[in-house]
């Protein structure tokens, strides 16, 4: 198929592009490189520097290629930053996405695979969280993603635009072949920060909060390997073609690990004595976020295969050891 991958130079997008190319699809990447890296896209893949807020540039792109589906990975994802700069989040994650969707409709492209987030749920009222759990996001990041999901429902009603929204829990890990991985700047995510402490790129890992209502007092999260996320997107593509309907799926492992469990596992795998500092809670962190991903298992036939905590950390450690990345 002829596929546009917006944000294909970023963390999850670049893993998706590798998969789609290997499956024989014709892929065009559009990225503004604000957080992505050109060298995360293989030379053989068409790659356009473009901001999806730019309607004219999108028109030119869509006039040049007859896309059959659009994957959208291009959003800002830092919860803390979204609280400090909400406009930045609504502008890119909502407004620019709307510009992209309007362009799709003008060019009669009616299949859309959207990166959503567990942040749409806010503080969980029940655990594990299924897709019908109340959606009460507690920060602009989560709200911007929920708003896009709502826009997508309306566009399906009005224009028959079919979409699959995939609500990621804690994306983690790296390409098992070692060619791609996580490189955020600044990095805020737990696993890469722990591994930076293991490799000596930072002196310690800070544990944000040790007084949560969890067995060891630290927050519990559902870590899901990036290659399992990619597999779910590939299945979402089959779903949208075969079922011809829109849907929303949680993508998580269904198993939670505490911050201390993640650090202990990283110590075991790296053989390094990772220094810990205990600090106050980080604002906005729920104690426990664990997915009920039965819908994806039932309707997409999806089964996480690489998402043991050990596998996630091994692959991320392999990637960290290649720093600086060429
Ligand atoms: N943590 C630390 N120390 C750190 C970094 C994180 O203790 O230096 C803790 C956090 O407090 C949290 C856990 O590790 O309890 C995981 O934190 P991350 O920042 O890695 O991930 P989050 O759970 O905050 O956020 C992730 C995604 C968001 C998404 C959210 C939804 O990054 O985009 O999951 O569940 F919105």
TrEMBL record:
Keywords of the record: Carbohydrate metabolism, Isomerase, NAD
One Pfam family, short name: Epimerase
Catalytic activity: UDP-alpha-D-glucose = UDP-alpha-D-galactose
Annotated NAD-dependent epimerase/dehydratase domain residues: 3-252
One Gene Ontology biological process: galactose catabolic process via UDP-galactose, Leloir pathway
Gene3D superfamilies recorded: NAD(P)-binding Rossmann-like Domain, UDP-galactose 4-epimerase, domain 1
Stored CDD domains: UDP_G4E_1_SDR_e (cd05247)
UniProt-listed Enzyme Commission number(s): 5.1.3.2
InterPro entries associated with the record: Epimerase_deHydtase (IPR001509), NAD(P)-bd_dom_sf (IPR036291), UDP_G4E (IPR005886)
GO molecular function, one term: UDP-glucose 4-epimerase activity
Domain of life: Bacteria
Transmembrane segments: none
UniProt entry tagged with the keyword Methyltransferase: no
Family note: Belongs to the NAD(P)-dependent epimerase/dehydratase family.
Subunit structure: Homodimer.
Identification of the protein by name: UDP-glucose 4-epimerase
């Amino acid at each position: 198929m002829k596929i546009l991958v917006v944000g294909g130079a970023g963390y999850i997008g670049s893993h998706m592009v590798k998969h789609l190319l290997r499956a024989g699809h014709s892929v065009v990447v559009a990225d503004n490189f604000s957080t992505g890296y050109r060298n995360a896209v293989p030379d053989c893949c068409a790659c356009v520097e473009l901001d999806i807020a730019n309607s004219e540039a999108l028109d030119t792109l869509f006039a040049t290629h007859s896309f059959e589906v659009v994957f959208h990975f291009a959003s800002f994802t830092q919860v803390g930053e979204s609280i400090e700069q909400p406009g930045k989040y609504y502008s890119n994650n909502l407004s620019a996405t709307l510009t992209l969707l309007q362009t799709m409709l003008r060019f009669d492209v009616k299949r859309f695979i959207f990166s959503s987030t567990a942040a749409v749920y806010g503080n969980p009222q029940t655990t594990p969280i299924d897709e019908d759990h109340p959606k009460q996001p507690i920060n602009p990041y989560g709200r911007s993603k929920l708003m896009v999901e709502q826009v997508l429902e309306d566009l399906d009603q009005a224009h028959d635009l079919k979409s699959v929204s995939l609500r990621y829990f804690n994306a983690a890990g790296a390409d098992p072949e070692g060619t791609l991985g996580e490189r955020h700047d600044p990095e805020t995510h737990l696993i890469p920060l722990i591994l930076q402490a293991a490799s000596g790129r930072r002196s310690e890992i800070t544990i944000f909060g040790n007084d949560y209502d969890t067995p060891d007092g630290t927050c519990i999260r559902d870590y899901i390997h990036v290659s399992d996320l990619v597999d779910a997107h590939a299945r979402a593509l089959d779903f949208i073609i075969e079922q011809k309907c829109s849907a929303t799926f949680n993508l998580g492992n269904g198993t939670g690990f505490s911050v201390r469990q993640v650090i202990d596992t990283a110590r075991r795998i790296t053989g390094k004595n990772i220094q810990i500092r205990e600090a106050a809670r980080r604002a906005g962190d729920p104690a426990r976020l664990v997915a009920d991903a039965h819908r994806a298992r039932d309707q997409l036939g999806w089964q996480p295969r690489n998402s043991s905590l050990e596998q996630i950390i091994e692959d991320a450690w392999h990637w960290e050891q290649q720093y600086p990345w060429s």
